[in-house]
């Protein structure tokens, strides 16, 4: 079965009730490609609103979750609370959290494990800094980040993971990876899945690209064989892109 194209919109810390309502109303009205899975990730305070407003075909994702079930963890949200609010997905390991909030590989991996054990699906973000790319360490970095998660998950649990390759130098910078750069890393990730997890995981896991994706560049990126979709930040107020390059 071919991998279903996946488009995630990460609103980050943007939006208020009015603007989020209007984005969702527009998405509800848009002619969406039935072959594309659409998931939006508003700030946590608007998750319930988003779930109430969005068409049931549109999934809602948190931008983060904590690895402990409940307790004295001020400011955090648990997997159970997300499930209670009918939120099916969470982003984990976004570079803004890895860098600004110093989340390390093991913490990210423990959150992925807690999320999946509790019934969520996960958009796992990985990617290298500009310095690491220039030092030719891209594959080493993404492999390290993936190995950390593999320490915690069973082979079957990878069915609940979408891997988002997001080079840090491309996020919010307007500097998008070339199609060749994206394909090279995506195919290395697929090989890692085959070697370390299973041939099924390699065939079935969606590997999506994030980093200054826009209506202009998504069509070419989508043509690459190992690009199964996008995680879109800044442009996520705009229409989504399908594998065929059509806008929905
Ligand atoms: C992101 O936040 O995941 C992202 C890819 O951002 P942008 O599209 O703005 O680069």
From TrEMBL:
GO terms for molecular function: triose-phosphate isomerase activity. The keyword Protein transport does not apply. One of its GO terms (cellular component) is cytosol. Keywords: Gluconeogenesis, Glycolysis, Isomerase. Transmembrane segments: none annotated. Its EC number is 5.3.1.1. One of its GO terms (biological process) is glycolytic process. It catalyses: D-glyceraldehyde 3-phosphate = dihydroxyacetone phosphate. Pfam families: TIM. Pathway: Carbohydrate biosynthesis; gluconeogenesis; Carbohydrate degradation; glycolysis; D-glyceraldehyde 3-phosphate from glycerone phosphate: step 1/1. Homodimer. PANTHER family: TRIOSEPHOSPHATE ISOMERASE. Belongs to the triosephosphate isomerase family. This is Triosephosphate isomerase. The lineage of its organism: Eukaryota, Fungi, Dikarya, Ascomycota, Pezizomycotina.
């Amino acid at each position: 079965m071919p991998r279903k194209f996946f488009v995630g919109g990460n609103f980050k810390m943007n939006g208020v009730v009015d603007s989020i309502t209007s984005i969702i109303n527009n998405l509800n009205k848009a002619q969406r490609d039935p072959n594309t899975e659409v998931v939006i990730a508003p700030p946590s305070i608007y998750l319930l609103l988003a779930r109430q407003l969005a068409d049931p075909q549109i999934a809602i994702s948190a931008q983060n979750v904590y690895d402990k079930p409940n307790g004295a963890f001020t400011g955090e949200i648990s997997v159970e609370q997300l499930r209670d609010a009918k939120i099916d997905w969470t982003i984990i390991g976004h570079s803004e959290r890895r860098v600004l909030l110093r989340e390390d590989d093991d913490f990210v991996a423990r959150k992925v494990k807690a999320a999946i054990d509790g019934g969520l699906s996960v958009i796992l973000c990985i990617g290298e800094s500009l310095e690491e790319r220039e030092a030719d360490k891209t594959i080493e970095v993404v492999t390290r980040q993936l190995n950390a998660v593999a320490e915690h998950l069973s082979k079957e649990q990878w069915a609940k993971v979408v891997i988002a390759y997001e080079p840090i130098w491309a996020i919010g910078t307007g500097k998008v990876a070339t199609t060749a750069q994206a394909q090279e890393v995506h195919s290395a990730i697929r090989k890692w899945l085959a070697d370390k997890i299973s041939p099924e995981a390699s065939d079935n896991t969606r590997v999506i690209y994030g980093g200054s994706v826009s209506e202009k560049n998504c069509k070419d990126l989508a043509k690459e064989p190992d690009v199964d979709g996008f995680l879109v930040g800044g442009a996520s107020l705009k229409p989504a892109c399908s594998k065929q390059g059509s806008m929905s």
